[in-house]
Each structure stands twice: as C-alpha cells, then as structure tokens.
Amino acid sequence: MTWGTELWDQFENLDKHTQWGIDFLERYAKFVKERLEIEQTYAKQLRNLVKKYCPKRSKDDEPRFSSCMSFYSILNELNDYAGQREVVAEEMGHNVYGELMRYSQDLKSERKHHLQEGRKAQQYLDQCWKHMDNSKKKFERECKEAEKSQISYDRLDNDINATKSEVEKAKSQLYLRTHSADESKNEYAAQLQNFNGEQWKHFNVAIPQIFKNLQDMDERRTVKLGETYRNFAEVERRVVPIISKCLEGMVTAAKAVDQRKDSGIVVESFKSGFEPPGDFPFEDYSQNLSRTGSDNTISTPKNEGVVKPDPKHSISKAAKNKLWLFGKKPKWSVKAPSLEDFSHLPPEQRRKRLQARIDELSKELQKEVDQRDALNKMKDVYEKNPQMGDPQSLQPKISETMCNMEKLRSEIHKNESWLSEVEGKVSTRGDRRPSADVNHHTPHGRESPEGSYTDDPSQEHRSPPHQPDPRQAHQPDPRQAHQPDEFDDEFDNDDPLPVLGHCKALYSFDGQNEGTLLMKEDDVLYIIEEDKGDGWTRARKQSGEEGYVPTSYVEIAMEKNSKGS
C-alpha cells in the first residue's frame, strides 16, 4: 500500500502529516534533552552530597571505627554511582539527542525538496489546464459569432428587398466566421489532448513518485524513532552492571560494621594506663579535742582505737585528680601542649604514639638504607666502566645518605628509650634492633661501633657516632667526631678474617677508643669487614693490627671476587 496510488489526491494532508512527524521527532528530542539534564543535575547533587560528608581532616585524625570506614566506603561507592549517572547523561546527549537533532534537520531539507517538486508538477498541470480552457472559450465564442453570421446571411438571402451586395457581404462574413470557428475547434482539440496527456502523467507518474519519496522519508523517521527508543534503554542497561557493583559495595561495607571491633578501638583510643584508685582511709580530726569528765566513761585513750591517717593513703591533689571521672579532670585530659616525648599523654596513649613514631622512622631509615645500597652499586658500576660516569661524583650523595641514616638511628634510639621508660623496663638495642635497621644483623655479644650492643643488659644506650661530612670541609676536624666508647675484644681469634679489599685514609683518625684503629692520612689498610650500615668499617694494617675506622674517613676499593659478598 503506497501513498502514490491510494492518496493521489491528498497532497495537502500529506503535507500536514509529514510536518507533524518532524514535530513529533523534535518533541521526543526535547524530552531526551530534559531527561539528560535531570541526570546531570542528579549526578552533580550526588557529588556535592558526597563532598559535603567526606572527611576533611587528615588521615591521622580520622576515626578508625568500622562504622565510619563503612560509611566512607558507601560515600565512595555513591560517588562512583554519580559517575555512572553522568555517563548516562553523556551518552544520551551524544547517541540519542544529538542524533535526533541532526536527523531532524535532514528530514526538513528532504521534505522541503519533495514538496517543492509536487507543487511544481501541480503548477505545470494548472498551466496546461488554463491553456486548454482558453482555447475552449475561444472556440465557443467563434461558434457563436459564426451562428450569428449564418442567421444574418439567411435573413438577407430571404429578403427580396436586400441588394445583391448586402447578400454577398453577409455571405463573406459568414465564411470568415465559420473559418475562425474551425481554427478554434482545432486549437481546442489540440490543447485538450495535451492537457489530458499531462494530467495522466501528473497523476500516474509524477505525483506517485513524489508521494512515494514522502512515504519513504516518513517510514525512515519512524524507524529512527524506534532506534533511538532502543538506544535510550541501552544507555541505562550498559551502566546497570557497574551500578550493581556499587550497590554490592555498599552492602559489603554494611556487613563490615563490627561492633566489637569498634568497642576495642574505643578502649585503645582512651585507655590511660592508670590503675583505679584504692580505698581512702578515714581521717579522724577529733583526736586533739579535750574530753569532759562525764565523757570519761565512754572515751577512748588517745593512743588506742584511733586510726591515724596513713601518709601513703592521704588524699592528695594528685589522688583527687585521678578521680576525674567524678570530679576534676587531670591536666592531660584538657588540651595540653604537644611534647616531643608525648609525656603530656597518659601512659598507654604515649606508648602507642611512640611506637607509631618508631615504625615511621624505621620506614624512613629503610628507604635511606636502600638508597645507600643503590648508590654503592652505581658507584661500583662507574668504577668498572668509567665512561658511564665519575664514581667520585656519587660520594657527596653517599655521605649525605649516611648522615641521614645516623640521624634516623639517633631518633629511633631516643624514642626507644622513651618507650622503654613507658613500659617500665630498660630496653636493650638488641630487643628492638629489627625495627631500627631491618637488613643489618650483628652477632650476639659483640658491640657495634655505635656502642649500642653490649653483653650487659643494664648498660645504658649510647648515641651513635656522628661522622663528619667531607663536603662541608676539605679536611674534617676529628675532635668534632664522637668516637665509640668501647669495643668488645673480638680480634683475638686464631684465624684472621680474609681480606675483602683495601682502602686509603682520606683523613687522620686518632683511634683512642677501644676497638678502633689509629690511622694517618694516606695510609693504606686492608678491609676485612664491610660497613654494616652503622658508619664503621673494620680494617687491618700491614702490621696485623685490626680495628674499626669511620667509613667516611676512607676511600674504599673492593676486590672483584668480593663484590656482592
């Protein structure tokens, strides 16, 4: 069923219908636009909501409760959900709304072209009809004039009084009118035949083709609407799996809420470490009151039955302050200034803060150790391949790294001392060494050049030696270097240690402390033990004397077969 055959006479209605189709398409495009604007607004409001309730504090200040962490996880999932709504809006704008608007413009141009062709065909048919109608009217007029001439001639021919010239004149006039009528008849017949031919072409060829084009255009519009309806739904369907994952993440976060864990965190966060206060003794202030004679029978001797206040259990300000739950709060419960050793905190909180700081410093120390090892490897590569770089150019960076390591070790040692004080026991270096230097292990019973290892656990910790930085002065002053106090005598072994390499003294070293080795500038020594990360290298003189020397005081050259050992 085609419009060209069934609707050959409905040009105006088809004009209105095709216009309605384009208007409907644009109406649907407007609907999609408003829908994607709703999605954009919704996504923006969701993101603002997430931003409003997201924590604005640092990670250290954030609560670690499972309920809070789950809520933050839900906020993250909601933020991802808002992102999916933005994806929906973007794809609707590109794949549906944008496509509809482009197609609408194409439809308007195509419809205008087809309607113009239809109007031209109609105008041409109207023009043919006018020519035929004019020739018809002319033929009618000429026939009427010929009839009048025939009547006039017949009247004069029958009139006996008419002259011969009058009759000839009427006859000539009749002949002219009859000839004109015959010509008009022929012209009318030609115009009629032409009009009929053009009319047949119009209604059987031109108009059906034009209407068929309009029908194809309208059907394509309908198909396009169906495709955009499907795209409209597919946009939503494509984000459903991701939205489902967001919702599953929210459910998982809800299941992660653990009331017992949160209660434990409360205990961890606020436990002071103080013991609960004991019973307070009765303090009798009536001992010094004089008794009357009538009271002698019931009075008690001055020194009998009277409970004297025990100075150990007397109510003092400190004891009263410990009852802060029911009275005055101690000073640490108020906003106290932050001290380096956290002594303003209660014991348990102070222990946790110190342990956290030690762990953080240990991580920084490990980074410096890794950096030092990497620089040493690079230096070895430069020594083997001088064309790759100058080994001496790395020495300032190595020295700086060593200084940073010593500073970090000093900080770790200081915090470990405070931690031992909090725990109520003396902590030896060997107890906590893994947290300070992960990759360097020292044999039991031997004291390192830092003076922190010892066989006597009661011996107090000593600060690690401070090595001079050769970058700061060409010739360091050994008086400014803190030398190790003592070394265990471990050089009396029967079998000497193998030689790993040799070194050249850059500066003089007095070696006054036990375990150290005296050396002068430009002395050449044998290396029998590498630096373990504490800034000291074990060396041997040609005379056989052994001891430790500062690593930064010497220039080391290792044997090839000992690299990496």
Please give the structural blueprint.
Layout: H1 3-6, H2 11-53, H3 66-158, H4 164-255, H5 259-270, H6 317-321, H7 347-384, H8 395-423, H9 429-436, E1 501-505, E2 524-529, E3 536-540, E4 546-550, E5 554-558
Helix pairs in contact: 2-3, 2-4, 3-4, 7-8
Describe the model.
This protein is mainly alpha-helical and 565 residues long. α2 (11-53) runs antiparallel to α3. Residues 293-336 and 425-494 have low confidence and may be disordered. The chain has 9 helices and 5 strands. The two termini are 94 Å apart. It has a 5-stranded antiparallel beta sheet, with no helix packed on it. The protein has helices spanning 3-6, 11-53, 66-158, 164-255, 259-270, 317-321, 347-384, 395-423, 429-436, and strands at residues 501-505, 524-529, 536-540, 546-550, 554-558. 57% of the residues lie in helices and 5% in strands. Residues 419-449, 458-485 have a biased composition (Basic and acidic residues). Residues 344-421 form the REM-1 domain. GO terms for molecular function: lipid binding. Residues 291-302 have a biased composition (Polar residues). Belongs to the FNBP1 family.
